[in-house]
Structure formats: structure tokens, C-alpha cells
Automatic annotation (TrEMBL):
Signal peptide: none annotated. This is Ribosomal RNA large subunit methyltransferase E. Belongs to the class I-like SAM-binding methyltransferase superfamily. RNA methyltransferase RlmE family. The keyword Oxidoreductase does not apply. It comes from Mesorhizobium hungaricum. The keyword S-adenosyl-L-methionine applies. The active site is at residue 185. Keywords: Cytoplasm, Methyltransferase, rRNA processing, S-adenosyl-L-methionine, Transferase. Its EC number is 2.1.1.166. GO terms for cellular component: cytoplasm.
Length: 236
């Protein structure tokens, strides 16, 4: 089905996997599979024991912006298959006995050491309270890598994922501790207008970030809002 060919890149020997054209496999699926099998981040994630290549996006963003620190409480929205939870649990030194990383996804996923996982839809009206309850208090960081399932209709996909991004942002400003951070997946051109204005009012700095692990050809972009100013006291 596949054949491997040795090529040389600099001094490193690279094994390239070719996926043969065959009946029943659409050309677009064949190309996707070939790209996936030859993706260095996919190969690294297997070697490093990460559940997803997405783990490296958080690693690269955190290495640059220094968000995750030992002892912090973290909420991870759209957690499956668990790469970001793995990174957050290790970097915050979250323990299995008292996890201070909580992930949520409507997909079932394997347990992640140091993280508590809720299998539910984040858009369920009970999700925010369940997350804070599972965490045992307000988070220092809210992460969201949520993406709506793709329909093939680009505009529809953007609108759905932007809706998730907006609900995640509202959640973040309603639960974060002062000084906390919010990182969310978005799209190029997606976070203009009201959402960006709200984040700029609520956080001391807002950055668009494209980590190297996010494919150049992808319109995916991350929005990082740092240093939450806090909520006005009740009654103001
Ligand atoms: C790109 S994946 C996340 C990958 C993850 N960061 C990792 O490192 O393994 C996006 C996830 O968002 C989840 N998702 C999308 N909409 C959701 C919703 N309304 N509630 C919970 N999870 C959702 C999907 O099920 C999917 O697993």
C-alpha cells in the first residue's frame, strides 16, 4: 500500500512515505494521508509521546510567551485527543491526586495524567459551572483549541469556529483570575470587530500568534490575550 524511499536532507536521512494511487481512495484523501505521514511534527509527537501534533503549537507559544507555570490552574476547551492537556499538566506540575488542569470535549478521550476530563459539549449551559467546579476555583489560564467539525463549506466552517471562539472568550473573562491569560484558536481575518475590542478592553495586551507548528497553508491563527484586568466588583 505504501512504499518508503530514503532521501537525504542535509546530514539527516529522511524516510519519505509514498501513498500509492489506488481505486477507492480519493486523490484529496491520498494527498492528506501522504502529507500526514511525512509531517515532521506527527513523527515527533509519536517519538515524544504526545497525543497530537497540536501539542507543539502550545509548546511553541508557551516557550515564547511563558504562560504556564507550576501550580497554575488551567482550563482546556476542546481538549481531545489530549495533547494540550499533556503539555499543560507537565508544565504546571499538576498531579494525578489533585489535578489543576481540566479539559473538556464532547469526544471521548483517554485519561491524561494530571488532568481531569469532562466529556460534554462546551456550549451546554451547564459546562462553565462544571468546569470551575472540577477545577476547584478560578483558572489562571483558559486555553481553547476548539474547532467545529468541517462541512467543506469554508464560510460556514469559519462562522462556527468563530462562534466557539466568542463563547470561549466570554467564558474566559467571566472566570479568569486577575493577571490570567486566554489563548484561543481563530482564523486569519476572523477576530476583528467586537471580539477583539472586548479582549483589548479586558486584557493588558492582545497578540495574534502563528506558531511554526501551525501549517503555513492553514488559515488557522491563535489569539493570545495576556494579563486579565479583572472584573468590576459586583454592584458597579
Ligand atoms: C483541534 S482539536 C483539539 C486538539 C487538542 N488541542 C490537542 O492538542 O489534542 C479540536 C477539538 O475541539 C472539540 N470541540 C469542538 N467543538 C466543541 C464543543 N462545542 N465542545 C467541546 N469540544 C468541542 C472537537 O471535538 C475537537 O476534539
Amino acid at each position: 500500500m505504501t512504499k518508503k524511499k530514503d532521501t537525504t536532507a542535509g546530514n539527516t536521512r529522511v524516510l519519505r512515505t509514498k501513498v500509492k494511487k489506488k481505486r477507492g481512495l480519493k486523490e484529496s484523501s491520498r494527498r492528506w494521508l501522504e502529507r500526514h505521514l511525512n509531517d515532521p511534527y506527527v513523527q515527533r509527537s509519536k517519538a515524544d509521546g504526545y497525543r497530537s501534533r497540536a501539542a507543539y503549537k502550545l509548546i511553541e507559544i508557551d516557550d515564547k510567551h511563558h504562560l504556564l507555570k507550576p501550580g497554575q490552574k488551567v482550563i482546556d476547551l476542546g481538549a481531545a485527543p489530549g495533547g494540550w492537556c499533556q503539555v499543560a499538566a507537565v508544565r504546571t506540575k499538576s498531579s494525578e491526586a489533585t489535578p489543576h488542569v481540566v479539559g473538556i470535549d464532547y469526544l471521548e478521550m483517554d485519561a491524561v495524567p494530571g488532568a481531569a476530563i469532562l466529556q460534554m459539549d462546551f456550549l451546554d449551559e451547564q459546562a462553565p459551572a462544571r468546569l470551575v467546579e472540577a477545577l476547584g476555583g478560578e483558572p489562571d489560564i483558559v486555553l481553547s483549541d476548539m474547532a467545529a467539525p468541517t462541512t467543506g463549506h469554508r464560510r460556514t466552517d469559519h462562522i462556527r469556529t468563530m462562534h466557539l471562539c466568542e463563547v470561549a472568550a466570554d467564558f474566559a473573562v467571566s472566570v479568569l483570575k486577575p493577571g490570567g491569560h486566554f489563548l484561543t484558536k481563530t482564523f486569519q481575518g476572523g477576530t476583528e470587530g467586537d471580539l477583539l475590542d472586548m479582549l483589548k478592553r479586558s486584557f493588558r495586551s492582545v497578540h495574534h500568534v502563528k506558531p511554526p507548528a501551525s501549517r503555513d497553508e492553514s488559515v488557522e491563527l491563535y489569539l493570545l490575550a495576556k494579563d486579565f484586568k479583572g472584573r468590576a466588583p459586583a454592584g458597579d
